[in-house]
Structure prediction request, 391 residues.
Amino acid sequence: MTMRFDFDTIYDRRIPSDIKYTPVKGAEGAIPMWIADMDFKCPLAVREALNRAAERGIFGYTDTDDAYDSAVVSWYSRRMGWKINPAHILKMPCVMFAIASAIRALTEKGDGVMICQPVYHPFASVVTANERRLVVSELRLRDGKYYIDFEDFENKLMRENVRLFLLCSPHNPVGRVWTREELLEIGRRCLKHGVFIVSDEIHSDFIYPGSLHTPIASLSEELAECCVTCTSPTKTFNLAGLQAANIVISNPAIREKIRRTGLATGYSNVNSMAIAATKAAYLGGEDWFDALLCYLAENVALAETVGGKTDGKIRLIKPDGTYLLWLDCRRTGASNAELYKLFLNRAGVRIHKGTIFGAGGSGFMRMNVACPKSVLLEALDRIETATKGFA
Prediction:
């Protein structure tokens, strides 16, 4: 399947504005596998659409149209069986903009906003930056898989005046795709205590065999009424720099509150190039993405060999989804500072420190494997060499 598409070419991304490839002083030759964008060109359909838009040469104020809505709705219907009413879609520049807007619209200063760590690190900062009180329910690791501690989850909903729960689905960085039963349990407890759910589902297309992504808002009309679902084509098609997000909100009062809160920032529209790219991606990028998903599954299987390469010192928490892998490095015996140096300075591989995702990330690292296989194999070889004799 992947033969029709090229995921093996290594492109030179070393330009000053490319964040992922910004060199680290003293480790200029490190392989960048940290920030969550892919090293693959986006689908040809997207590049052609952007070329056509550029060729017109006029970049006036632009709005989405019925064709845009149809492309988004059709994608989620085909891929997940989720029937979205196009009137429920609020277009915003990016998912984190939407999350910040939801927090400001649906909570007051001092209210509790809960997250399950280890989790995508901007979750914590967007809560505290908006002067809400961060409440953390730690995920529990059992037999190589993470689970929500529902007793702790509900206790904190009650005790900490939690008004909003930030759900990461699929979960970044631990790679969990929550089951229907788990999502129903989250929904039941949030409904019971009058808690809004803001669900970041930006990685929902990256699901590996054996797992199935279910949008939490699709489970019932009652749940949909308290949910804000954040979606975007940017991870799926490697369009992060274009910035576009489609926020699905069934409840009209909530939708209007969040819309007004976004407008109050003075910045809330999707730009013309992002509109063109989104339509082209959802209408013409499906074969490309299916091939990509197969390629990424092969990369995940390659990454599993890290355990054997390091004599069990580093082990992969096998993901249900996403291209971001959670490495259990506790058997190295290294402190978190030593662990970072082990990867960056000894191995020459730049990956994310587990501690930025919360206290539960101590002893872990996050690695992005959305890259050509040759790059991943080189990184694994470097890690193997670096861990030999490490004490």
